Amino acid sequence: MRDRPSPSLEGLTDEIDVDHESAIPLAAAAARDRARRVGLPGAMPDQAAVLASELAGNLVKHAAGGTVYIQPLPHGEGVEITAVDRGPGILDLDRSLTDGYTTAAGSLGAGLGAVRRIASEFAIRTRPGSGTLVSARLVAPDAVRPTRWRVGSVCLPAREERYCGDACAVAETDDSLTCLVVDGLGHGVSAAEAARSALRSFHTAPDRPLGEILTTLHRALRHTRGAAAGVLRLHSDRAEYCGIGNVRAVVLSGGEIAHRMAGQPGIVGWNVPTPRARTVTLEPGAGVVLHSDGIESRWSHNPSTFLLRLPPPLLAAALAHDHRRTRDDATVLAVRAA
After folding, report:
1. Is the Cβ–Cβ distance between 195 and 245 less than 8 Å?
2. Which domains, ranges and CATH numbers included, belong to the chain?
């Protein structure tokens, strides 16, 4: 009998490296399974499989260094399939999005046009010579969709690990969005249990002041191995950040890095100083990235304007694909006002 996945495992991103045709059915099966687990009704799990198959097939035919990421949406109301590659890019993007267009001999010809038609939400960016990023989301017809914020995330265990000590969550209120990234110390089951305890604590009252949220997390994690944690609250005109340990927040504005914010020294659950929140002003259109130290911090030292202007689902995938430490659990959460 198969073990039932833990809640921390349920929130993970499935990662399929696409370097051979054999990866296409693997991606399709993973997308169908994920769609069923998040409760998408009727034929939607099969639609998710079609999306993953088409995106993985495009990587096999046209790209190099490609990966498909499959995960529940941050708000839990659907599934997201994202493809990232280091291929030649798409020279004529409008033409490639025409249903039936293909440049590959033997292709069914559905390609990106079918992906855009089937998906509830679709985003694509390409840069000739550097690659393409595509996000296709399927959302249940009766799901309540967030209207004020665009959110993207990727949560990956260290290579060869089944359980992930990282986790993330978001909670929307009338006038703000509160985000959590937590990094349980070490790897494996014990780190995952610490992260799961943090998620349970966060969801009890995510609208409290940030310092109170961290203090409550500290109490909840006292009988675990502990964690680093960062809590971010976004308003229309400002961002508040409060963190303990190596969880970082980076504010993006106008195609540039506007602010970098790191956590205070300490371990949530073991030794925590009085949490201090920092507030920064947000310009219209600004975004924020919150990530664990499984994402190399140097990504923000000299990033391209192309990277910084990506919509949140593609930005999270790009950072995980290009700046991940594979020997560590890695989580990145990207947010921008809709």
Report:
1. no
2. 7-139 (3.30.565.10), 149-337 (3.60.40.10)
